[in-house]
Amino acid sequence: MVTGGASGLGATVRRLAGAGAKVVILDRDTAKGETLAKELGEAVAYAPTDVTNAADVAAAIDLASSLGPLRIAVSCAGVGWAGRVVARDGTPHDLDLFSTVISINLIGTFNVLRLAAAAMAGTEPTETSERGVIVNTASIAAFDGQIGQIAYATSKAGVVGLTLPAARDLASVGVRVVTIAPGTFDTPMLALLPESQRQALAAGIPFPSRLGDPAGDYATLVEHIVRNSYLNGETIRLDGALRMPPK
Predict the structure, then answer these.
(1) Of 86, 125, 205, 244, which residue is least crowded by CB atoms under 10 Å?
(2) Given 46, 152, 218, 230, which residue is catalytic?
């Protein structure tokens, strides 16, 4: 199952399906989710899901489990918001917006992790005693948060922080937990920027000097994490050696 699977880093859906997995797309965008599921055929299904809603996620897990034992859960759903702790006009950061970003990016990720892990724990282990793997998405903003990224960086730092204790908690049931911290990726959010800004962002990446590719870079790493059973409890930066400046 892949949250946020209808677009952006959700390109992981195509990668996993192409590798032979049955995949459930969890996304709030019904039109895109249903279209992608139809395009990819019988091995892919769509479940309308708000990751902060326990009932939605549980229903999606039930759907995934009906296709076979749940072995892979990838969390790509997330939102961003720009705002300083205190704006130039003296206005403090909006508390509701801060709470919304934390709710979706951090609490939503944990909601998926806890429910997916519970489902995996009830399956038969593989020959290597593994029952499943959970891949979360943080951001290099968790380490290099820029001016105006207080809510986003905090939410993603929380995802990094839960990775090791979750892996340790779940070791007894044979479930691995790994987090990817992407840099500047060519997602729909960046597609809204003028081309000159997109090129400037790409030029600032040491090597390769290009935006990250959700299908070629992120999804490839997800597949490797799934296949490499010794990867556990780690956060992997995927950023072309980028270290973000203050602004």
Answers:
(1) 86
(2) 152
pLDDT, tens digit, 9 for 90 and up, residues 217-239: 999 999 999 999 999 999 999 99
In whole angstroms, give the CA distance from residue 108 to residue 26: 12
CA–CA separation, 182 and 137 (whole Å) = 8
Q: Quick one: which H or E segment has residue 179?
A: strand 175-182
CB atoms within 10 A of CB 51: 26
DSSP-assigned beta bridge partners for residue 25: 2, 46
> Is 152 assigned a catalytic role?
yes
Report the distance separating Cα 9 and Cα 196, nearest Å: 23
Is the overall model pTM greater than 0.85, yes or no?
Answer: yes
Which residues, other chains included, contact 22 with Cβ-Cβ below 8 Å and sequence gap of 6+? 43, 44, 45, 64, 67, 68
Residues written for the chain: 247
- Find out whether 79 and 137 touch, Cβ atoms under 8 Å: no
